[in-house]
Amino acid sequence: MLREAMNETHQNQQDATYDVIVLGTGPVGQNAADHARAAGLTVAAVERELVGGECSYWACVPSKALLRPVIAVADARRVDGARQAVTGLLDTARVFARRDHYVTGWNDTGQAEWLKSIGVDLFRGHARLDGPRRVTVTRDDGARHTLTARHAVAVATGSRPVLPDIPGIEEARPWTNRHGTDASAVPGRLAIIGGGGVGVEMATLWQGLGSRVTLLARRALLPRMEPFAGDLVARGLTEAGADVRIGVQVSALHRPDPAGPVTLSLDDGGELEADEVMFATGRAPLTDDIGLETVGLAPGSWLDVDTTCLVTGVEGGWLYALGDVNHHALLTHQGKYQARTAGDAIGARAAGRPVDDGPWGDHATTADRHAVPQVFFTDPEAAAVGLSAEEASRAGHRVRTVDVDFDAAQGAGLYADGYRGRARLVVDLDREILLGATFVGPGVSELLHSATVAVAGEVPLKRLRHAIACFPTVSEIWLLLLEAYRRG
């Protein structure tokens, strides 16, 4: 896409040696390259699509650019006086133009120039491992480069959407997350399959833009969060006009006319007709054609890593896997954290310095296991960090949960008339620290970092109560949660 506009920075030579080779230039690959360069290492980065990756052009950035107008209008309607000013519908052309601005028209020149500015050599084409520390890059025109890494190859190729193997799926030509964020026309009726983060955000987005959305989920929405999160998001979607159906699966699809509607056959015997159907039913690693078999790994597999993101089962300690491909947390911010940590570890190993890979060490991705934050920009928003109550109990912790509804916080009431939401803390009773926190309500994404600091820092609750929440803000919920815990 826009290949003629991309800034090509190939090297002229067919063979070259670098300290580090990074496969994939999304935010994860860029962070790895940046930290390796900061350590004084030479770096080559290889990209087969757009510099900036899935996040920049088809996921985080465009989805949030599209969602923000939807949520802004919903927020205004929750405040008397502002509500009366909202008299029309969203201008979808302007909403799509806003998205186009943030994805720079799917032109990656700026991000390619940034790589160049930090001293990273960009090779465009398809990269494949060719044995230890070797990478071949095949360009669109068939030209090939052979690159060799002195110290490390970092795989940051990301993931792809998974489509279920059901009759008629090819005929239906379903949307994936890419269609959900790069489309510029609103379908009259949109069926979305999947109740995870992508499914609920896309349902919020397209219902807000004027589509009649039906969301189908096999189980509760947001099943990896506390149960009340999915319940409140489902309630918000229903009140916005979406048809939310839980416990329903699609058994077949039928679309005889490519320009006509698609019929979904459901496992309960019913049928549903839509103008478009979107699947948000999971992801698979983009490792199927990157030469893993040449280093003894199975093509298409998730890559197991240690705390420094070094791939296990590969001799020589040179292959790293960052972001989605290691399956720790398929979130851009978590992948960037891994990349910063691994880039520093690569630099330390290359210089012969000690590697601090113990818990919470400079070269350890400890937060992957204890303090992963995530936000879904639905209406209401759902945000969480750390372990849910079920996960904590399953891990053997002795825990207590503390729940408080936001309507008890005066700051929340001033933020939105009839503010509705809930917060939960998961407390480790033996150490009296937080193992997890969940917030659901308008604007709660801005509460999450305080919870992340508390969980990652293992701040004792006795100390945490001295972190005073400003009055009157939504963050007063912290005071209420901690008081509820003290009172038992």
Short account of what is shown:
With 488 residues, the protein is α/β, with parallel strands linked by helices. Helices cover 31% and strands 24% of the residues. The chain is globular.
Could you tell me the CATH topology label of the largest domain: FAD/NAD(P)-binding domain
- Estimate the strand proportion: 15-25%
Instruction: Using the alpha-carbon principal axes, give the shape.
Output: globular
Subunit organisation of the chains: single chain
Beta strands, count: 21
Q: How is the biggest beta sheet arranged?
A: 7 strands, mixed
What's the Cα radius of gyration?
A: 24 Å
CATH class of the largest domain: Alpha Beta
How many individual helices? 16
Q: How many domain regions?
A: 3
- Specify the helix fraction band: 25-40%
CATH architecture of the largest domain: 3-Layer(bba) Sandwich
Unreliable runs, pLDDT <50, ≥5 residues?
1-12
User: Taking all residues together, what is the mean pLDDT?
Assistant: 95
What is the CA-CA span between the terminal residues?
58 Å
What's the name of the CATH homologous superfamily of the largest domain? FAD/NAD(P)-binding domain
Helix- and strand-based class? Answer: alpha/beta
Keywords: FAD, Flavoprotein, NAD, Nucleotide-binding
Pfam family, one: Pyr_redox_dim
Binding site for NAD(+): 194-201, 282
Domain Pyridine nucleotide-disulphide oxidoreductase dimerisation: 372-477
Describe this structure as you would to a colleague.
- The chain has 488 residues and is an alpha/beta fold.
- The protein has 3 domains: 187 residues, 3-Layer(bba) Sandwich (FAD/NAD(P)-binding domain), CATH 3.50.50; 113 residues, FAD/NAD(P)-binding domain, CATH 3.50.50.60; 108 residues, FAD/NAD-linked reductase, C-terminal dimerisation domain (Enolase-like, domain 1).
- The chain is built from 16 helices and 21 strands.
- A hairpin with a 4-residue loop joins strand 20 and strand 21.
- It is globular.
